Amino acid sequence: MDSIKMKRELESRLAGDDRLFTYDRKLDQLRIEHKTIGKGITISLAGIVAKWHSENDKAIDEVVYYVEEGLRAMTDTVQLTDHEKKIFPVIRSTSFPTEAEEGIAFLTEEHTAETKIYYAFDMGTTYRLIDARIMEKEGWQASRIKEIALFNVRSLKTTLKEDQVAGNTFYFLNSNDGYDASRILNKGFLNDMQKRISGTMVLAVPHQDVLIIADIQNNTGYDVLAQMAMSFFANGRVPITALSFLYEDGELEPIFILGKTGNKNGKGSQ
To answer: Which spans in the chain are helix H?
Structure first.
């Protein structure tokens, strides 16, 4: 499988009378645009081809799902009023775009040196990031959206899976509702977890569909967490950061974990 074959496969599976495909050979990117609204999604083919060599058709299935749901979200109407329970925060990397392709700014908030908070309207199997145009149309203030989103994320289930490695305990939150990483904003949940932890509490949000909480007892624990975070980050559909975070006094501090020595360096938080 190469980029040209992947391009043809995606064009075949995403074909439709209302779809326009544009291929940028220099950047090796394929853009799928909805003709009626003039909006679309641009995907990098090199990454998909690389993933295909390890996951085969699963890699293509994920991209097709992502594009179909993304285009549907662009065409569906967003109504915040009377649908407050559908508003949630989502975590993204600080390199994630801060505005839509047409230059409309997304509603965002600073989080850490590695992560930023965006706000989304849940549409069932996907969601749409809330931007300035939606807020203006609805007549909503940013503070109202942020308050409702944080309230809603606290209502989400926090069911955990547990694993132990070399005396360290790792907890995984992976409900696949699109807001697993968002649970890192639930301070009540994090504080309850801190009471259960006897060592150092370290968290990771490598992609949007997982939150890892670690009870680190020794250097091996740091190494294992670093390897986990990097693996999840490389394979996630919406990667966030491969770095981990110390949780102390209700604050998150990004840290580097170096090699297999368990050494760690603080990077500071914002």
So the answer is: 3-13, 45-55, 57-75, 132-138, 142-154, 187-196, 219-235
**For 146-174, b where at least 16 C-beta lie within 10 A, e where not — what string?**
bebbbebbeebebebeeeeeeebbbbbbe
In the numeric block, the tokens 């009023």 are attached to 81
What is the three-class DSSP state of 93? strand
Residue 206, Ramachandran bin (φ over 0: left; ψ between -120 and 50: alpha; else beta): alpha
Helix (H, G, I), strand (E, B) or coil at 79: coil
Give the single-character DSSP code of 111.
Answer: -
Q: Tell how strand 211-216 and strand 251-258 pair up.
A: unpaired
Q: Would you give per-residue pLDDT tens digits along the chain (270 residues)?
A: 888 999 999 999 998 888 899 999 889 999 998 887 777 888 889 888 888 888 888 888 888 877 877 777 676 678 898 999 999 999 999 998 898 767 889 999 999 999 999 999 998 877 889 999 899 989 999 999 999 999 999 999 999 999 999 999 999 999 989 999 999 999 999 999 999 999 999 999 999 999 999 999 999 999 999 999 999 998 877 899 999 999 998 899 988 776 555 556 554 333
- d(CA 12, CA 67) in angstroms, rounded, equals 13
Both tokens of 229, joined, read: 């975070």
Q: How many CA atoms lie within 13 A of 141 on its CB side?
A: 3
